[in-house]
């Protein structure tokens, strides 16, 4: 597995030490905004949808702090981006899009995951405002889709190709 070591747009530096990252995580335990939050930010990648989306603003806030102190690498060969979890959740539009409440599903990300079986997906399930709000903020780097270990979208590029095929090339409009 080769890690892409280019700097992410959400991270000014990728030369942080483990100590810097650990210290940032410790600071969040006493931060008035995050101290009572049930998620342990050192285990953010292993957190469930409900815990993240129930208070997505706190997750965004903490992720923005952590992306400044913790190395964030996109693994171009993997659909699971454990090493970029803070970068993905620090993108406000993407995180809010993922956690947007939708009918039939609790959160938009649930609808996106449910539609991930690209062989049987219908236009009604794929061409939705939820899909647009989830994908549009990350079109330039789909590997930074908000995700965790328990819910990661495999073949993100294939998913977007299917959206374009079914919903039309202009589904996302202008960026």
Describe the structure.
The chain is mostly helical and 175 residues long. It has one domain. It contains nine helices and no strands. The protein is elongated and about 45 Å long. The model is unreliable at 1-13 (pLDDT under 50).
Summarize the structure.
41% of the residues lie in helices and 0% in strands. By secondary structure, it is mainly α.
Ranges where pLDDT stays below 50 over 5 or more residues in a row are 1-13
Shape: elongated
Chain-averaged pLDDT: 79
Main beta sheet: none
Count of structural domains = 1
Give keywords.
disordered N terminus; mainly alpha; 175 residues
Q: What's the topology here?
A:
Elements: H1 18-28, H2 49-53, H3 56-67, H4 85-90, H5 92-98, H6 108-114, H7 123-126, H8 129-135, H9 156-167
Helix pairs in contact: 5-8, 6-8
């Amino acid at each position: 597995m080769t890690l892409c070591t280019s700097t992410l747009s959400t991270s000014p530096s990728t030369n942080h030490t483990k100590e810097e990252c650990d210290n940032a995580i410790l600071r969040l335990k006493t931060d008035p905004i995050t101290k009572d939050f049930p998620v342990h930010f050192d285990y953010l990648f292993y957190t469930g949808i409900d815990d993240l989306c129930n208070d997505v603003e706190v997750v965004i806030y903490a992720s923005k702090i952590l992306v400044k102190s913790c190395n964030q690498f996109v693994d171009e060969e993997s659909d699971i981006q454990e090493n970029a979890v803070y970068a993905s959740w620090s993108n406000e539009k993407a995180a809010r899009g993922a956690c947007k409440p939708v009918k039939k599903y609790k959160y938009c990300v649930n609808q996106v995951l449910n539609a991930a079986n690209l062989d049987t997906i219908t236009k009604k399930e794929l061409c939705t405002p939820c899909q647009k709000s989830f994908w549009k903020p990350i079109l330039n780097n789909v590997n930074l889709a908000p995700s965790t270990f328990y819910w990661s979208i495999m073949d993100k590029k294939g998913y977007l190709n299917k959206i374009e095929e079914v919903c039309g090339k202009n589904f996302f409009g202008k960026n």
